[in-house]
Design a protein that fits this description.
This protein is α+β, with helices and mostly antiparallel strands and 118 residues long. 38% of the residues lie in helices and 19% in strands. β2 and β3 form a beta hairpin. The chain is globular.
């Protein structure tokens, strides 16, 4: 499943069955202002990723980092217990992208001009 990626691109997270999830995230002033994701074609995983995007959008980063898999499972009732592991995968990917984004160097990358002295 593909959704528009914005801001900081997190590292893909994979489970033991080869399913992957990866979030992109934009944080401004400590608030999540943009989210996107890419996930393996697994309807449960995609549903959890989409739900996490809905939940996290507009919230402060600290509250998202406090989320636990049980919170994600509760946010999407009706998913069979045997598929709850996909909530863990989705949340690990979101937490990873958010932590990476928050620890990224806030300084812009240097501009390189051709022909300019080093």
């Amino acid at each position: 499943m593909r959704q528009e990626l914005v801001g900081h691109l997190g590292t893909p997270v994979q489970d033991s069955h080869g399913r992957t999830a990866r979030f992109s995230i934009l944080v401004e002033g400590g608030t999540v202002t943009g989210l996107g994701f890419r996930a393996s074609t697994c309807i449960t995983l995609v549903a959890y990723c989409e739900r996490l995007c809905e939940i996290a959008s507009g919230r402060d980063a600290a509250s998202i980092l406090r989320m636990r898999p049980a919170d994600v499972v509760a946010a999407l009732p009706g998913v069979p217990a045997a598929r709850h592991d996909q909530a863990v995968l989705a949340l690990r990917a979101l937490h990873g992208a958010l932590a990476d984004c928050l620890s990224a160097d806030p300084r812009p990358a240097p501009t390189i001009t051709r022909g300019a002295p080093p």
